[in-house]
Write a structure and sequence with these properties.
330 residues; binds Phenylacetyl coenzyme A; globular; two-stranded antiparallel ribbon
């Protein structure tokens, strides 16, 4: 297993934040500033390790919970081809979750612990997956907007200072890029279809636009982790910078589709070369991440059931591993 032998990964020599010396911290920052990759067995400040465990595990949980809204349409996809594509996409998301759990494990946290933190509600997952998928067009909107926002955020993560996370993101981004295109293609097909189909696409955009912008996190002024994460080159761009890049690209794609972005104040500023948009409803965002979004309880209930249903698989794997270990010892 990739993570075997990394039991001490990410732990500083003293295993105690109070004993980190100024020299150690300065030498670590110098490595970051020199664009060196930090690897699992390298010395790192305890706060760097904790930040990565938080972000990578939350990212992994998002991929896993994110399978649910799209999984909802697997049995109702409009054709066999659409069903096969959606099935492959949902499986890709499961794979992303697994790479990310593995990357987090290199930091000395167990997968059992990460899953326990998700199931207890201690760990977050992306706000976007707490919205319902009411029509087939929502599957197009998720690919186009949600995967589109995910790529915007994740391409810079391929240059994250922590090697195992950065490397995991390379393949994830390639797959997300395919997901984004398949979503856009669903939207294009609907927009070139009947009036009813186009209205369905518009309705999906209306419901997914603002939640997609919220995916990038709070405004920079309210982002508790950004300054430190940027100094450590975990994040390369701030939440607002990435959100703006996403708006600038996506509004033009909506124009191409002939759809209206649901924002009366959306205007292109010729001087800055950027679109200006309305204030996000931050109350809604904070309600959703506090567990009070439209589907939070449904998503968590489904995940808990799936975890319980999988208990026999974990038991069987454990029994098999014990048997192999006993054979090897004999
Ligand atoms: N939802 O100080 P910041 C995908 C929390 S993958 C929920 O700005 P940070 C693929 C944040 O955790 C989507 N919580 O935090 C797919 C923190 O709370 P904490 C997931 C959020 O970490 C597509 C607090 O607010 N992608 O979509 C959200 O510096 C289709 C303060 O915020 C990633 O996870 C939110 N939207 O920046 C799958 C990418 N935003 O932890 C299936 C990696 C913020 O102190 C289908 N993550 N919070 O309790 C990141 O880049 C960062 O973690 C940010 C947040 C940018 C999300």
């Amino acid at each position: 297993m990739y993570t075997q032998g990394l039991d001490q990964a990410g732990k500083n020599d003293a295993g105690n934040k109070d004993q980190e010396t100024a020299e150690q911290l300065a030498a670590f920052q110098a490595r970051i500033d020199a664009e060196e990759k930090i690897e699992a067995k390298d010395w790192m400040p305890e706060a760097y390790r904790r930040t990565l465990v938080r972000q990578i595990s939350q990212h992994a949980h998002s991929e896993i919970i994110g399978m649910q809204p799209e999984g909802n349409w697997l049995t109702r996809a409009p054709s066999l081809k659409r069903k096969a594509i959606l099935l492959a996409k949902v499986q890709d998301e499961a794979g992303h979750g697994l790479y990310l759990y593995s990357a987090a494990e290199t930091l000395g946290v167990s997968r059992d612990q990460m899953v326990a933190d998700l199931l207890s509600g201690k760990a977050k997952y992306s706000s976007i997956f707490n919205y319902p998928t009411l029509s087939w067009a929502d599957i197009g909107a998720i690919g186009w907007l949600v995967d589109g926002a995910a790529i915007m955020n994740q391409i810079p993560l391929c240059r994250c200072s922590y090697g195992p996370y950065a490397r995991a993101m390379v393949r994830v981004c390639k797959e997300e890029s395919f997901h984004q295109r398949q979503g856009f293609e669903i939207m294009l097909t609907l927009c070139r279809g009947t009036g009813e189909q186009k209205a369905m696409a518009q309705d999906a955009l209306n419901r997914f636009w603002w939640p997609s912008l919220m995916m990038f996190g709070p405004n920079d002024s309210n982002s508790t982790h950004s300054a430190q994460s940027m100094a450590w080159k975990i994040k390369r761009f701030s939440n607002d910078e990435l959100r703006q890049k996403f708006v600038d690209i996506t509004v033009r794609q909506a124009d191409f589709l002939g759809l209206n972005v649901p924002d009366d104040k959306l205007t292109f500023n010729e001087e800055t070369g950027h679109y200006e948009f309305s204030e996000i409803d931050w109350q809604e965002f904070f309600d959703v991440i506090a567990g009070n979004g439209p589907c939070n309880s449904q998503r968590m209930a489904k995940r808990r059931n799936a975890h319980e249903d999988g208990a026999w698989v974990r038991e069987a794997a454990r029994a098999y591993a014990d048997k192999r270990a006993a054979q090897a010892a004999a």
